[in-house]
C-alpha cells in the first residue's frame, strides 16, 4: 500500500507542488476497533501543516484484526470525493492510472440572487448558547448520533432539521444555512477541490410547510446553482453573524459502503463553527455527524445540538404529512419532563397560609413598643399602628362598607397611607392603591372599573361619584365618618385565599387592568425569602415607590410582617438622590429596594457623599439589570458587607419570582441571570405550543406555584388567556409574555418581551395602551408608539415617541400630546408626538419602525432664548446658560417656554442637570423647583431670585 501511495501521489501532485510527498503511516492500536474509535477521531482532527503537508495517510491496525485507513487533506487541495478516489486506489479497488491528476478550480463568485437571499435572512447576534472554549484555537470536535431512518433525502431532512433547531436556539424565523457540496458537473474520476457552496434560507414562520421546506433544501443540495467556493460563504455568514453551516457530502444517500463490506465515511472540516454531516456507522447504519470548532461551540453544547437535530430529523422521517415547522418539537417525552423539572425550586416552602393583617397583629403583639413606621419625623409604634388601623377599619364598616368590597386609597406617601392599607384589610375588605399624581381621568377610570365602594383620599375629584363614599383620613381617625353609627371592632371572616389588594397595570387593550392578589401570596413571598435574606426586626426598610407600583407591596409588608421598621420616603425626596442618600444615612436604612435606573443615581450620590451607608441588602426589581456598573458599588460595599440580589417578577405573580445574588464576578461578566425560582414558585420556558424548550433555547416564560394572582378583575376572557392549566405540576401557570431561557442549573436568563409591553425606568408600559389613547384624540387617523434612545443601556436616554397621521396634514401635534397628558400617567406620556404622512410598512405589511423617523414632518424650530435681561429683571444670561445645558442633555433645540419634561426630560436626566449646573457655576437647583417651574424662563427667574 505504501508503494502504491508513493506512485499515486507522485503522479497526482507532481514535483512542483511545493509540498512534501506524503507517506503512509502504519500504527498498531492495542485495542479492538470499537474501543479504539477515539484514536480514529484524533487522527481525523489533527491539523495538517499549512505549507509543508497537503495530505496524510494513516493505517490504524486494531487488535481484533480490523483496520481503518484514515486520509486527511487540505480542503483547498482535495475534496471529499477526491479522498474517496484515493481510497479506491490504495485499497486496490481501482488503479491510479484511471484517476486524473489534480486540476485547479476557480469556484467563482456568489450569484446576486443568492446574496440577496442572504441579506434578507435573519442573522443571529452570535452563538452565546454555544459555550465555546476560549483557548481551543482551531481545534475541532465531533459528535455522532445514530439515526433510525436513512434512505434518499437524508441530507435534505438533516438540513431542515438543523434549520429548525438553530432557529429555536437563536429565536429566528428565517435561519441562514451554508450548504457544502460537490459541483453538479464535477469532472469524473478527477482529483481536486471541487467543493462548492450555496446559501439556504428557510422560512420557518409557519407560512411554509415541511414538504415545501424539504423540497427547497433538496434543490439547494442537488441543484445546479451556486457554483461558489465554500470559504466565500463562510465569510458571508461570519459577516452576518450567523454561525451554522450544513455540510452535505455527495454519496451519503446512495453509496454508503462497498460491495465487499468495506465502509467509506467522509468527515470534512468545514469553514464554519458548526457543521451537520450525514454519515454511516461502522455497521453501515445512518448517523449524524456534528463537527464543531471548540473555541466557538463547546462539547456539551454540540452534543445537545446534535441530539435535538436527530430528534427533529426522526420526526421528519417518520411521517409523510406536511406539517408546520412549529409542530416539530425538540425534546422527547423523557427529556421534556426533565427539562420542565429544571425550573422547580431547589428547596420546598414550609409555611402556613394566613391573612396579612393577622400576621401583622402577631408582630404587634410581640413588639408593641417597637417603631413600625416613620415619616418626616413622625412615628407610629406597632401597637399604635395596630390600634389606629383597627379604629379606621371599624369606621369603614360603620360607614356601610361590607366584607370583601373594594376600597380605594389615593393618598400622598405618608403615615396615613400605611395606616389606610392595613385598615382596609382589617375591615375585611380589598384595598386598591391609586397614585394621586395620576391624571383625573385615569383615577376616575380605575374607581369605576374597580367598582369602589369607598375611597380614602384628600382629593376632591372623587366626590359626586354615584355609589362611592369619599372619606378623609382625619374623618376615619375622629370617628366622624359615619354619624350616628358606633364603630365596632371588626372580626374578619374572609380566608387567606381571598383577595387582599388590586393593583392596576398598563393594558394592551388601551385601558389598565386590575390584578387581584390574595393575602396568602404575600405571606408566601415573605416565607420564601425571610430566612435566605435574613430579614427581621433589626432591619430598617424604605417605602420608596408609589403605592400603585407593586414593588411597594414588597416594601410595606416585607418590613411590617417581619417586625422591621419602615421609613416612608416623601415624593420629593425620592426624586433627589442626594436627599434620599441623606435620609438613608439618618435613618440607618439596612434593606433597600430599587430599580436599576434609580440605583445608578444613588450610587453617584453615595460616591459624592463619601459617607458609608448602613445598607446590608439591596434588592433590584422592576426592570432588567446591567450588573457591570455595580463594580464601583462593590468597591465601597464588598459582598461580605452588603448582599446584592437581582429579582425577576410580575404583578400577576406577586412581585417576585426568582432571586440571583449578584457578585463582583457577575458584574465583570455582565451576566443576565435573574436566578432560580423562589421556594414555592416554579418556572417553565415553553414554545408556542407550550412544550418545554431545551436548556439555553429562548422561549416564553411561564410561572406557576404559590404567587399566582386570582384573576384580572372583571376580565374573564383575559384571565383564561393568561392563567392557563399547568400540565407539569397541576394547578395553574401564568403566561408572562416575557422571553427567557433556562440554564442547565435551573437559573433563568431574562431576554426581553414577546409583545409590545416595555419597561421604561421600572414602569411596566403597554405601548398599545398609549396608541389607543392617541387614536382617541381629534384628527388622528393612525398612530404608532416606540421607545427610542435606550439602545446604549442608559435608562435616562430611553424615551417614548409617538408618530401620528393627522387628518389635516398641516395639523398641530401639541393638542394630541395634551390629550395624552390628560389621560395617561406622566411616565406613559410620549416625550414627542411627531406627525408623519403615513406609517411605513415592511414587505410583510408590518410597521417598519426603522423608517418612522425618516417619514417625520419637520417641526418649526423653537423661538430663540432671549439672552438680554428684560426690563422686569428677567435673567437673560442665566436663561441662555440653562437653555444650553438642556440642549446638551436632551439633544433637541430648546425654546424659552419649552417644558423640560415634555422635551424628553425625566427624573434621571433632572439629576444630571443639577450636576451640569453645578459644574458650570449656576445657582444650586432643588429638584422640586424644576418640577414646579419646568421652563427655561420660569426656572431662571426662580433661580435668580434665590441669589438675592
Task: Walk me through what this model shows.
The protein has 948 residues and is α/β, with parallel strands linked by helices. Among the domains are: 2-102, Chloramphenicol Acetyltransferase (2-Layer Sandwich), CATH 3.30.559; 106-330, Nonribosomal peptide synthetase, condensation domain (Chloramphenicol Acetyltransferase, 2-Layer Sandwich); 356-491, Rossmann fold, CATH 3.40.50; 757-855, ANL, C-terminal domain (GMP Synthetase, Chain A, domain 3, 2-Layer Sandwich); 876-947, ACP-like (Non-ribosomal Peptide Synthetase Peptidyl Carrier Protein, Chain A, Orthogonal Bundle), CATH 1.10.1200.10. Helix content is 32%, strand content 21%. Helix 5 crosses helix 8 (299-317), helix 10 packs antiparallel against helix 11 (382-398) and helix 18 crosses helix 19 (596-609).
Short summary:
The chain has 948 residues and is an alpha/beta fold.
- Would you give the CATH topology of the domain at 106-330? Chloramphenicol Acetyltransferase
Amount of helix: 25-40%
The percentage of residues in β strands lies in 15-25%
The radius of gyration computed from the alpha-carbon positions, rounded to a whole number of angstroms, is 34 Å
Low-pLDDT sequence parts? 118-127, 239-244, 246-260, 867-875
Oligomer: single chain
Instruction: Let me know the largest β-sheet.
Output: 10 strands, mixed
Main structural class: alpha/beta
Helix tally equals 28
Shape: elongated
Task: Kindly report the name of the CATH homologous superfamily of the domain at 106-330.
Answer: Nonribosomal peptide synthetase, condensation domain
The CATH architecture name of the domain at 106-330 reads 2-Layer Sandwich
Distance between the termini: 104 Å
Q: How many strands?
A: 37
What is the CATH domain class of the domain at 106-330?
A: Alpha Beta
Amino acid at each position: 500500500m505504501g508503494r502504491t501511495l508513493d506512485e499515486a501521489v507522485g503522479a497526482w501532485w507532481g514535483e512542483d507542488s511545493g509540498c512534501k510527498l506524503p507517506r503512509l503511516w502504519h500504527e498498531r492500536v492495542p485495542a479492538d476497533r470499537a474501543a479504539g474509535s477515539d484514536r480514529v477521531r484524533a487522527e481525523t482532527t489533527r491539523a495538517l501543516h499549512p505549507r509543508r503537508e497537503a495530505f496524510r495517510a494513516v493505517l490504524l491496525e486494531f487488535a481484533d484484526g480490523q483496520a481503518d485507513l484514515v486520509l486527511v487533506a487540505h480542503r483547498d487541495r482535495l475534496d471529499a470525493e477526491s479522498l474517496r478516489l484515493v481510497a479506491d486506489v490504495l485499497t486496490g479497488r481501482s488503479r491510479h492510472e484511471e484517476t486524473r491528476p489534480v486540476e485547479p478550480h476557480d469556484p467563482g463568485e456568489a450569484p446576486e440572487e443568492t446574496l440577496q437571499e442572504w441579506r434578507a435572512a435573519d442573522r443571529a447576534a452570535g452563538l452565546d448558547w454555544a459555550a465555546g472554549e476560549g483557548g481551543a484555537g482551531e481545534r475541532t470536535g465531533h459528535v455522532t448520533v445514530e439515526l433510525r431512518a436513512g434512505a434518499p433525502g437524508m441530507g435534505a431532512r438533516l438540513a431542515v432539521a438543523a434549520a429548525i433547531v438553530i432557529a429555536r436556539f437563536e429565536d429566528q424565523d428565517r435561519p441562514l444555512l451554508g450548504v457544502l457540496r460537490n459541483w453538479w458537473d464535477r469532472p469524473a474520476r478527477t482529483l481536486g477541490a471541487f467543493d462548492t457552496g450555496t446559501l439556504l434560507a428557510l422560512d420557518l414562520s409557519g407560512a411554509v410547510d415541511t414538504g415545501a421546506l424539504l423540497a427547497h433544501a433538496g434543490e439547494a443540495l442537488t441543484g445546479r446553482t451556486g457554483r461558489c467556493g465554500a470559504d466565500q460563504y463562510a465569510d458571508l455568514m461570519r459577516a452576518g453573524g450567523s454561525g451554522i453551516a450544513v455540510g452535505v457530502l455527495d454519496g451519503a444517500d446512495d453509496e454508503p459502503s462497498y460491495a465487499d463490506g468495506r465502509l467509506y465515511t467522509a468527515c470534512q472540516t468545514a469553514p464554519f463553527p458548526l457543521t451537520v454531516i450525514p454519515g454511516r456507522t461502522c455497521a453501515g447504519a445512518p448517523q449524524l455527524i456534528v463537527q464543531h470548532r471548540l473555541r466557538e461551540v463547546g462539547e456539551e453544547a454540540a452534543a445537545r445540538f446534535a441530539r435535538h437535530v436527530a430528534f427533529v430529523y426522526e420526526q421528519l422521517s417518520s411521517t409523510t404529512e406536511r406539517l408546520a415547522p412549529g409542530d416539530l418539537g425538540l425534546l422527547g417525552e423523557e427529556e421534556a419532563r426533565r427539562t420542565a423539572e429544571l425550573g422547580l425550586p431547589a428547596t420546598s416552602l414550609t409555611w402556613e397560609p394566613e391573612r396579612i393583617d393577622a400576621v401583622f397583629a402577631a408582630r404587634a403583639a410581640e413588639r408593641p413598643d417597637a417603631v413600625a413606621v416613620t415619616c418626616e419625623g413622625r412615628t407610629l409604634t406597632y401597637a399604635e399602628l395596630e390600634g389606629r388601623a383597627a379604629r379606621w377599619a371599624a369606621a369603614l364598616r360603620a360607614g356601610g362598607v361590607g366584607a370583601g368590597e373594594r376600597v380605594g386609597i389615593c393618598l400622598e406617601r405618608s403615615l396615613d397611607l400605611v395606616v389606610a392599607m392595613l385598615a382596609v384589610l382589617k375591615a375585611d375588605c380589598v384595598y386598591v392603591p391609586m397614585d394621586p399624581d395620576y391624571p383625573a381621568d385615569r383615577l376616575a377610570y380605575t374607581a369605576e372599573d374597580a367598582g369602589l365602594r369607598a375611597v380614602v383620599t384628600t382629593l376632591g375629584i372623587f366626590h359626586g361619584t354615584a355609589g362611592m363614599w369619599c372619606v378623609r383620613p382625619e374623618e376615619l381617625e375622629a370617628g366622624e365618618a359615619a354619624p350616628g353609627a358606633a364603630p365596632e371592632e371588626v372580626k374578619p371572616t374572609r380566608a387567606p385565599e381571598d383577595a387582599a389588594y388590586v393593583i392596576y397595570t398598563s393594558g394592551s387593550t388601551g385601558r389598565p387592568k386590575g390584578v387581584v392578589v390574595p393575602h396568602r401570596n404575600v405571606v408566601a413571598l415573605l416565607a420564601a425569602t425571610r430566612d435566605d435574606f435574613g430579614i427581621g426586626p433589626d432591619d430598617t426598610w424604605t417605602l420608596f415607590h408609589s403605592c400603585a407600583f407593586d414593588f411597594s407591596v414588597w416594601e410595606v409588608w416585607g418590613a411590617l410582617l417581619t417586625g422591621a421598621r419602615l421609613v416612608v420616603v416623601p415624593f420629593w425626596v425620592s426624586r433627589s438622590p442626594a436627599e434620599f442618600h441623606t435620609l438613608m444615612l439618618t435613618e440607618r436604612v439596612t434593606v433597600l429596594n430599587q430599580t436599576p435606573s434609580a440605583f445608578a443615581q444613588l450610587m453617584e450620590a453615595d460616591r459624592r457623599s463619601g459617607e458609608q451607608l448602613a445598607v446590608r441588602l439591596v434588592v433590584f426589581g422592576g426592570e432588567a439589570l446591567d450588573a457591570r456598573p455595580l463594580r464601583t458599588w462593590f468597591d465601597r460595599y464588598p459582598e461580605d458587607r452588603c448582599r446584592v440580589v437581582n429579582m425577576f417578577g410580575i404583578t400577576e405573580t406577586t412581585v417576585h419570582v426568582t432571586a440571583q445574588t449578584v457578585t463582583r464576578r457577575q458584574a465583570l461578566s455582565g451576566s443576565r441571570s435573574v436566578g432560580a425560582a423562589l421556594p414555592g414558585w416554579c418556572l417553565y420556558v415553553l414554545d408556542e405550543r407550550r412544550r418545554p424548550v431545551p436548556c439555553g433555547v429562548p422561549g416564553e416564560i411561564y410561572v406557576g406555584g404559590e404567587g399566582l394572582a386570582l384573576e384580572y378583575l372583571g376580565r374573564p376572557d383575559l384571565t383564561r388567556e393568561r392563567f392557563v392549566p399547568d400540565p407539569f405540576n397541576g394547578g395553574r401557570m401564568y403566561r408572562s409574555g416575557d422571553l427567557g431561557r433556562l440554564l442547565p442549573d435551573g437559573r433563568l436568563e431574562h431576554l426581553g418581551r414577546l409583545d409590545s409591553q416595555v419597561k421604561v425606568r421600572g414602569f411596566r408600559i403597554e405601548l398599545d395602551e398609549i396608541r389607543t389613547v392617541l387614536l382617541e384624540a381629534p384628527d388622528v387617523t393612525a398612530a404608532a408608539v416606540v421607545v427610542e434612545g435606550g439602545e446604549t443601556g442608559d435608562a435616562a436616554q430611553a424615551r417614548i415617541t409617538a408618530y401620528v397621521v393627522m387628518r389635516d396634514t398641516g395639523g398641530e401635534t401639541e393638542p394630541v400630546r395634551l390629550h395624552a397628558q390628560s389621560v395617561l400617567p406622566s411616565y406613559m406620556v410620549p416625550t414627542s408626538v411627531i406627525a408623519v404622512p403615513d406609517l411605513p410598512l415592511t414587505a410583510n405589511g408590518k410597521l417598519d419602525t426603522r423608517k418612522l423617523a425618516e417619514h417625520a414632518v419637520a417641526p418649526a424650530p423653537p423661538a430663540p432664548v432671549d439672552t438680554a435681561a428684560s426690563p422686569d429683571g428677567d435673567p437673560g444670561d442665566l436663561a441662555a446658560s440653562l437653555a444650553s445645558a438642556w440642549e446638551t442633555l436632551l439633544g433637541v433645540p430648546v425654546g424659552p417656554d419649552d417644558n423640560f419634561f415634555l422635551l424628553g426630560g425625566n427624573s434621571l436626566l433632572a439629576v444630571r442637570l443639577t450636576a451640569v449646573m453645578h459644574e458650570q457655576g449656576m445657582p444650586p437647583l432643588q429638584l422640586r423647583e424644576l418640577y414646579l417651574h419646568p421652563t427655561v424662563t420660569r426656572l431662571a427667574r426662580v433661580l435668580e431670585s434665590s441669589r438675592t
